[in-house]
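HUMAN: Mind sharing a backbone?

ASSISTANT:
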Amino acid sequence: MATAKDAAAKVETLAADAQKAATDQFEKISKSLEDVAAFGQDNMDALMKSSSVAVKAAEELNAEIMSFSKKSVEEAVASAKEMSSIKTVPEFVEKQAAFAKTSLDGYMKQAAKINEMFMAAAKDMAEPMNARAAAAADMVKSYRL
């Protein structure tokens, strides 16, 4: 009888251990799935933030370009009016050269400004995604250990 009781106790112990191991594994899997879902949500949030930054940057760049274009057209019209009243060729060449220099200088300054705006926007757009890439690397490291 003692042997049967011992065997039954061993079976109960093995069953309890198996049940505990299965429960522990299920909890670990559930936690991992929750982590993956949260990670995916964080990725989506980062993508939305990056997209918002891109939209705002595009609006700012567009406004800057439109403002510069308007100013350039106004300056060209004013220069054309001024040149239409010129009586001599040397004076015309002088005014035309001055207008060309002013226009080129303005264009170069504007190109530098647009470039700076674009680079700042690119940095700001990449920031949320870079943070997610770092989080992914950390997650991979944590699963290796």
Remarks:
- The mean pLDDT is 91.
- The chain has one domain: 2-144.
